[in-house]
Every structure is written in C-alpha cells, then in structure tokens.
C-alpha cells in the first residue's frame, strides 16, 4: 500500500497553513488526520466548517455518535481521539467501553441514541422503524435525528480517510474490545 505522509505546515497551501495555525492555537496541535485533509486545498476547510456546525446534540451525545460509528467502522484513530474527548466530556473509561459496545446501562436515553446510530451506520441509512421510534420515544426530537445523521456522516468521512491513509495515531491508543 502507498504510504501517506502527514503533511507539515510548510507543505500545505496558505489557506491550510492558517487552519493549521488556528488548530495549534485552539487545541495545541494539528492532529495527523486533520493534517491529512490538507493534501487537498479544499477538504480541510470544508471539514473544519462541518466540525464547527451548531448541533442540537450535547457534547456527550456527540461523543456517543462518534464512538459508536468509529467502533462499527473499526477506526482506531477516531476511537482513540474520541476516547480522549469523551473523557474530557465526563465519561469514564468503563462508560466509554459500554458506549462502544452499545450496552449503555447507565443512561437509557444515550442507549436509544447509540442503538439508532449503530443501526443507521450498519444499515447504511436504513435503520429499523423500531430504532427510529425508540430514539424519538427516548425524548429526542426530529431536529436531533437530523443532527445525528449529519454527525454520522461527519464521522464516516474521518473513519474512511484514516482507513485509506492509515496515518499514525497521535492520541493515546484506545483499548481493543
């Protein structure tokens, strides 16, 4: 397989250099997967725009989506990144494993979200009607359903980018389950 190098700031367009600078200022680093988007003059800015969209989901709910999709797609990069982000948002190591297994016994509403995300991802946008109904009956709105689908798409993009490029993971590596 062709090796994908992680581009440095000096190797990317001026627009991407500014995004690198903002990432470094904001989070202290340019994650390898973000840098990989910068092979394109347009993809990194498009992805950052997608990432910064407002959402009706809470940060914890977003991490449930990110972890479930990344587990299904077997993306060690995204599992590692979102394990770290999940911890920053208050999840314990044990809870993160339960989220990844879609066995959330500590929050019924998050379980309904995780089940909907799992089915939607596995069935490529065709979850069971029961899963959709359980999602809505758990207290989620139609707006949150739409935002969940957008977030699933967001995570599929990064899962696939890592799956193709296999750039090094630059977060503490998530445990295998």
UniProtKB/TrEMBL annotation:
Pfam families: CMD (PF02627)
Gene3D superfamilies reported for this sequence: AhpD-like
Parts of the chain that traverse the membrane: none
Entry superkingdom: Bacteria
Record SUPFAM superfamilies: AhpD-like
Domain Carboxymuconolactone decarboxylase-like: 54-113
Protein name stated in the entry: Carboxymuconolactone decarboxylase family protein
Species this protein is from: Flectobacillus longus
């Amino acid at each position: 397989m062709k090796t994908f190098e992680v581009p440095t700031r000096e190797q990317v367009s001026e627009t991407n250099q500014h995004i690198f600078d903002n990432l470094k200022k904001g989070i202290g680093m340019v994650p390898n997967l973000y840098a990989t988007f910068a092979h394109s003059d347009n993809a990194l800015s498009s992805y950052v725009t997608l990432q910064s969209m407002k959402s009706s989901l809470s940060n914890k709910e977003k991490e449930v989506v990110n972890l479930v999709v990344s587990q299904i797609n077997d993306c060690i990069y995204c599992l590692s990144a979102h394990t770290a982000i999940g911890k920053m948002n208050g999840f314990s190591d044990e809870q993160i494993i339960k989220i990844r297994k879609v066995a959330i016994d500590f929050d019924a509403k998050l379980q309904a979200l995780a089940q909907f995300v799992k089915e939607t991802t596995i069935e490529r946008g065709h979850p069971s009607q029961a899963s959709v109904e359980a999602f809505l009956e758990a207290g989620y709105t139609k707006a949150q359903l739409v935002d969940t689908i957008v977030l699933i798409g967001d995570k599929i993009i990064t899962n696939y980018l890592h799956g193709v490029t296999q750039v090094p993971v630059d977060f503490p590596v998530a445990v295998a389950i």
